[in-house]
Design goal:
heterodimer, A: 155 residues, alpha+beta, DNA polymerase, domain 1, five-stranded mixed β-sheet, B: 787 residues, Aldehyde Oxidoreductase, domain 4, binds FE2/S2 (inorganic) cluster
């Protein structure tokens, strides 16, 4: 089995994997980082979104080996020293989650949005989230949370 | 929104979910765990001649392969349906066996044929491909509207595909009223079939301990105790005390995780056979094909009125698709949760409903958010809107004219239910104000100037939650009781553990229930932890469905709190050297009436566990359990109004405004309740505009992935304007009515009434997709264009 090496949440990790192992399987099964979820098998739900070299990626849509040498951030690596990232805090404050299953992907995706557009309007947010399905919230409070996080992060 | 004066309480569970530290079933792994993959039917209907598993057995990593024959040899039972509906001819419904692994035939695409158990999931899936299934394909019966018209029989013992022919209401009274009606409005309505699609797929880990003969099943269940009861008593024939079911964090259910499914049954049974834990997690393709689906009605309905638009009688004929087998509560959904709701918010004096439940070669259909009540609301509210149009009356006015009035409660409807309380007009007035109903004609003109079609639609719904009491549901065919249990335990150091049989899979019980207890004892919410989802930790329970958790589960907790207070008074009386009758309890303090002698509940709890200075006739400990069986259903209600703008050139329906005025009785956590409303509306919008489960004539599932089944995305939806009125439930200690399903119940009718108002025709069925809307709009504007 070939070996793969990457940096996950600031720590370098190497593992032997079957070549067909997806990045999401690598994170969940090999590193036991189960915060990244799997909600579909067609790369459409967005429950598995992580950051690869700073950009949001559906971790079910690439092989672990494609992330060789990459910098990966998962939901477990978003808070710093126990302080929630402003996006996580805003989701809590504005009830942007119910069952929590889509949440890690939503949060990671939303963090990436603000890198592209620090002041997105409602339409922009809704359009950006096209690749993240939530069955619980009706998105209302997710949109609100992202707007507030954006405000917070602009300072 | 009633101002409770309380500060917003944020959710206790959020931190773990937001940091990726939740524990969903698939996140768990047991030592020595194996993985299961199922071999499923590719034909909708076929005779199983042979299942050859030899090649799969020899594949790398494979530990075992089992088929229906193996389960049959072990005496495994059929997955039961827990509610027996009586046919109008007096006989019980037909309930053909539903084997966890098929024995003689497969009856829908996705039906279970064999299970392969291997060291890794990839090995299990690879080997599943090697199982050779020799079938003789049979003609399929996939269209419920034709199931009774000589379609191929799904089951030999229901040759006409009829499960039951059920009726409710006084037919003679209805016929008489129709005979003298001034006008009759009629509609043909289809309630489209939906796939629940909780974002967490179903999963299970079965485990067996040969030392103690105990089983543990980790399952994505909404009701672990109920699942245990069904598994033990009906399917696997195991002693209940030897089976523990853990439903940890569960990622949404919407009904689809109530039922006892084949996969978890197989994992539990097979764990003993192979002597190792077995894990199965559904791929989304398996969720599409084998989660229980929802809705799927074909209905003809007629409403008779007098010349003033007063409703005289309603008659409803429905064919309800039950799928290939009866899922756990399938039979009750289109009968006792549908026909009984057909009075809506109105004083219609006579209602008659006839429902034919039919078998088809499609996945089982069972409760999905709202379960029967969205279907009932859709029939009533579409028909009432139609009646207003026929009678050239304002749709708000015709409703107002027929509402049950606040002073008429308790109100006995002609379809068995007795409504507890409600203020229907109050919600309507509030909603009209919020949406600026007066300004609608002008907004419509403005849209017309832009070449757009604008419409407004109402839905005034009634819901019945917390289905009960047990005695009544038992007399109607339910195989279970519908109480709930709650246990409240003060720990010696003053913190509180609450154990509830309700289950939270997004509803935020860990917060709401903690608030209820914290408020009663005057302690911070942080001091109260709510434990749920584990039959090993919670004594008993019935789980979460039908918006019952606060009204029934919360009430049980309140009763347990009352017992704590009663016992605390005895301990306080002893410590304060007073008579029990003189002890008052308020906000966490026991006080001798009229004095300043007092003890905090923390001191009492400590004394209860360190009983040095303690009354002789009182047991140590401060830990009380209560079971609560409600006196009646609760009846939330409300009015939703949707306003849409349709672009006739593209068929796009834009929801330009949505107001919801709901009455859930007393509300504990308004933030959580609003969230429930949003989510429910989104599912209702999905049903009305986007979602439809389609089987072709051969019974192949056409919409088997997110590429083909259109889930509501963020940019399909607007923000919603949500308000509440508050009419307390008079018969439970919290005054709460339930809020989980309201949005999904109200929304489809409101939206379709708006769309048809904009289009100027009722000739469009759900989902009103872009294509359908475009065709109708074009046909209307330029009658030849859409040909
Ligand atoms: S798991 Fe659904 S998009 Fe990755
Ligand atoms: S919070 Fe449950 S799917 Fe989004």
């Amino acid at each position: 089995m070939p070996s793969v090496t990457m940096t996950v949440n600031g720590q370098e990790v190497s593992r032997d994997v079957e070549p067909r192992t997806l990045l999401v399987e690598f994170l969940r099964e090999h590193l036991h980082l189960t915060g990244t979820h799997v909600g579909c098998d067609t790369s459409q739900c967005g429950a598995c979104v992580v950051h690869v070299d700073g950009a949001s990626v559906k971790a079910c849509s690439i092989l672990a080996m494609q992330a060789e040498g990459g910098q990966i951030t998962t939901i477990e690596g978003l808070a710093t020293n126990g302080d929630l990232h402003p996006m996580q805090a805003a989701f809590k404050e504005h009830h942007g989650l119910q069952c929590g299953f889509c949440t890690p992907g939503m949060v990671m995706s939303a963090v990436d949005l603000l890198k592209h557009d620090p002041n997105p309007d409602e339409d922009t947010i809704r359009h950006w989230l096209e690749g993240n399905i939530c069955r619980c919230t009706g998105y209302h409070n997710i949109v609100k949370a992202i707007q507030h996080a954006a405000k917070e992060m602009r300072g | 929104m009633p101002d409770t004066g309380a500060p917003r309480v944020l959710r206790k569970e959020d931190h773990r979910f937001l940091t990726g530290r939740g524990h969903y079933t698939d996140d768990l792994n047991r030592p020595g765990q194996l993985y299961a993959a199922f071999v499923r039917a590719e034909n909708a209907h076929a005779k199983l001649n042979a299942v050859n598993v030899e090649a799969a057995r020899k594949a790398p990593g494979v530990v075992a392969v089992f088929t229906g024959k193996d389960m049959e040899a072990d005496g495994v039972g059929s997955l039961p349906c827990g509610w027996v509906v009586t046919d109008k001819n007096g006989s019980p419904h037909k309930a053909p066996p539903h084997w966890p692994l098929a024995r003689d035939k497969v009856r829908y695409v996705g039906d279970h044929i064999a299970v392969v158990i291997a060291e890794s999931i990839m090995q299990a899936r690879d080997a599943a491909e090697l199982v050779e299934v020799d079938v003789e394909a049979l003609d399929a019966n996939a269209n419920p509207a034709k199931a009774l018209e000589g379609a191929p029989a799904v089951h030999d013992d229901a040759a006409d595909n009829l499960c039951y022919d059920w009726e409710l209401g006084d037919k003679a009274a209805v016929d008489e009223a129709f005979a003298k009606a001034h006008h009759v409005s009629k509609m043909e309505l289809k309630n489209n079939r939906l796939i629940p699609n909780a974002i967490e797929p179903r999963a299970a880990i079965g485990e067996y301990d040969p030392g103690t003969d105990e089983y543990t099943l980790y399952s994505t269940s909404q009701n672990p105790h109920l699942l245990r009861l069904i598994l033990c008593a009906f399917v696997l024939n195991l002693p209940e005390h030897k089976v523990r079911i853990v439903a940890p964090d569960v990622g949404g259910g919407f009904g689809s995780k109530i039922f006892c499914y084949a996969e978890e049954t197989v994992c539990t049974w097979a764990a003993k056979k192979v002597g190792r834990p077995i894990k199965w997690t559904a791929g989304r393709d398996e969720s599409f094909s084998s989660d229980a689906h929802g809705r799927d009605h074909v209905t003809h309905a007629e409403l008779a009125m007098d010349q003033d638009g007063k409703f005289l009688a309603l008659k409803v004929d429905t064919i309800a698709n039950l799928g290939a087998y009866l899922s756990s509560f399938a039979t009750a959904v289109p009968t006792y949760l549908y026909g009984t709701l057909l009075a809506g918010q109105y004083k219609t004096p006579a209602v008659h409903c006839n429902v034919k439940g039919v078998f088809t070669n499609t996945a089982p259909v069972d409760a999905y958010r709202g379960a029967g009540r969205p279907e009932a609301t859709y029939v009533i509210e579409r028909l009432v809107e139609r009646a207003a149009r026929d009678m050239k009356m304002d749709p708000a006015e015709i409703r107002r004219r027929n509402f049950i009035q606040p002073n008429e409660f308790p109100y006995q409807t002609p379809v068995a239910l007795t409504y507890d309380s409600g203020q229907y007009e109050l919600a309507l007035d509030e909603a009209l104000k919020m949406i600026d109903y007066q300004g609608f004609p002008q907004r419509r003109q403005e849209s017309e100037r832009k070449g757009k079609l604008r419409g407004i639609g109402f839905s005034a719904y009634i819901e019945a939650c917390g289905i009960a009491p047990s005695k009544v549901v038992g007399s109607l065919g339910a195989g279970v009781g519908l109480w709930e249990s709650g246990q409240v335990r003060f720990n010696a150091t003053g913190s509180i553990s609450v154990f509830t049989g309700s289950h939270s899979h997004g509803q935020g019980h860990e917060t709401t229930f903690a608030q209820v207890v914290a408020e009663r004892f005057g302690v911070p919410v942080e001091n109260v932890d709510v434990v749920h989802g584990d039959t090993g930790r919670i004594a008993m329970g019935m789980g979460t469905y039908g918006s019952r958790s606060l009204a029934v589960g919360g009430s049980a907790i309140v009763r347990a709190c009352d017992k704590i207070v009663e016992k605390g008074k005895k301990i306080a009386a002893h410590m304060l050297e007073a008579s029990v009758d003189d002890i008052e309890f308020d906000a966490g303090t026991f006080r001798v009436a009229g004095t300043d002698k007092q003890k905090s509940i923390g001191e009492i709890a400590f004394a209860a566990y360190v009983p040095h200075d303690y009354p002789e006739d009182v047991e140590p400990g401060l830990d009380e359990t209560a079971f609560y069986d409600p006196a009646n259903f609760t009846y939330p209600s409300g009015v939703h109004i949707a306003e849409v703008e349709i672009d006739p050139d593209t068929g796009e329906t834009k929801i330009v405004d949505w107001v919801a005025v709901d009455d859930f009785g007393k509300v504990v956590n308004p933030m959580i309740v609003e969230g429930q409303v949003h989510g429910g509306i989104a599912q209702g919008v999905g049903q009305a505009l986007l979602e439809e489960c389609v089987y072709d004539e051969m019974g192949q599932l056409v919409t088997g992935s997110y590429q083909d089944y259109c889930m509501p995305r963020a940019d399909d939806l607007p923000s919603f304007r949500v308000a509440m009125t508050e009419t307390p439930c008079p018969h439970n200690p919290l005054g709460a009515k339930g809020c989980g399903e309201a949005g999904a119940i109200a929304a489809p009718a409101a939206l379709m009434n708006a769309v048809t108002d904009a289009l100027g025709t009722d000739e469009i069925a759900m989902p009103a997709t872009r294509e359908k809307v475009w065709r109708v709009a074009q046909a209307r504007l330029t009658p030849a264009a859409a040909e």
